Amino acid sequence: MQFTQEQITKLAPDDASAKAGKALASNSKWVLRCVHEKALWGDCQGSGKNPYRTIVDLTNLAFKCSCPSRKFPCKHGLGLLFLYAANPDVFSAEKELPEHVGEWLGKRAERAESKPIPVEKAAPDEQAQQKRIEAREKKVRGGIEELRLWMKDVVRTGIMNVPQDPYQFNQNIIARMVDSQAAGLANHLRRINKINYYQEGWQKALIKQLSKTYLLTEAYENIEALNTELQSDIKTLIGWNTPKEDVFNSTGIKDEWLILSISNEEEGNLRTEKIWLYGLGCQKFALILNFYAGAQLSGHAFVEGGTVKGELAFYPSTTPLRGLMKEPFEINGRFIQPGIRSSISTLLEDVTSKFSLNPFVSELPFILSSCRIALNGKNWYIIGDDGSGLRLSNNEEECWTVLSISKGKMFPCFGIYENESFNIQALWPSNRYYSIK
What we know:
Layout: H1 5-9, H2 15-23, E1 30-35, E2 39-44, E3 52-57, E4 62-65, H3 75-86, E5 92-93, H4 99-113, H5 126-157, H6 171-179, H7 183-190, H8 202-221, H9 228-238, H10 244-248, E6 253-267, E7 270-279, E8 285-293, E9 307-314, E10 323-325, E11 330-332, H11 344-357, E12 364-376, E13 379-384, E14 389-391, H12 396-406, E15 411-418, E16 421-427, E17 434-435
Parallel strand pairs: 1-5
Antiparallel strand pairs: 1-2, 2-3, 3-4, 6-7, 6-9, 7-8, 9-10, 9-11, 12-13, 12-15, 13-14, 15-16, 16-17
Helix pairs in contact: 2-3, 5-6, 5-8, 6-7, 8-9
């Protein structure tokens, strides 16, 4: 186990719990501190007569505590893990599990192994279902027609005034795409708002995004002429969803998956969680997308830099990336660095190959085995050991963070290629994992 404070902090349900957990990471707070290869457990003396019994499952990361807190994990579970990460020597190494710990772990294992009995669903009304599909198709095509007219108007009137109000000029057409049930196209248009209009070359980025969106609508108009996998890609990008049941029922890949990074994007009341994985055996990347409303907490205990063993099923695509983790799966506490030999030149070759299969690919994950970052004028670049370079899309603070962690030396890293630039998500200087997001 090599948990860092940062990794444990990200498991906290909120900042207050993380702060309270760090305050409990002291020997004096715990009357009992024990460790076994399967679990940590301890008794934390609170204000009451009896101490709170706390357990951390190390095999498949989870927490249990006798305190009345409704937060998960509570401050005691976080505190015990913070203490172990900072000072493991104060824990008594045990060969046997006490009854209450063994019982809890046993119940968790039973629940993981038990499979729910499938419930027979009533046969869907195929005629009514077909009518709903046709009604939505009509809405989508109506929205696409308006979008194509809007894009032509933008190009015809000129784009030089766009930077004056980059966050408002496309809001009406985004709302129209949502109304026409083409949420994927709305997301495409939102990427226009992420363009840095203060950076030289924004015109190229804007025209490229508009062109790609127009090409997507053209592909949808001629979807019947495309192969099955590309049809799935086009429909997904427009806004049609593949049912999760279909993905779970498909054959997945069983492997040990390295958790490369976990990041969150918020828009209004919706939070999108992105979990990037890398299969150590199959050598494939995967992306798990989770969506949460309001203050809803994450439904997993994945730890960045750690691994999870399980079967991952991919959504149909010419370049499969997005997937779902089938249950049961096992979260491991070992932190490793991927043994990959790759360069920026390899990255660009891979990008070319992927774009030849699917020109609508937006995010491409990649691991670089040896690189450094440097500031040239106002722009930051990532430079490989062969001298080749690529512009970074990380913000100023993140770039300085990477430079301070790496101390200007070469390091392996994981990042996302998008819009002809690279965004560093995590790095492994001196075989230690650091998250940048």
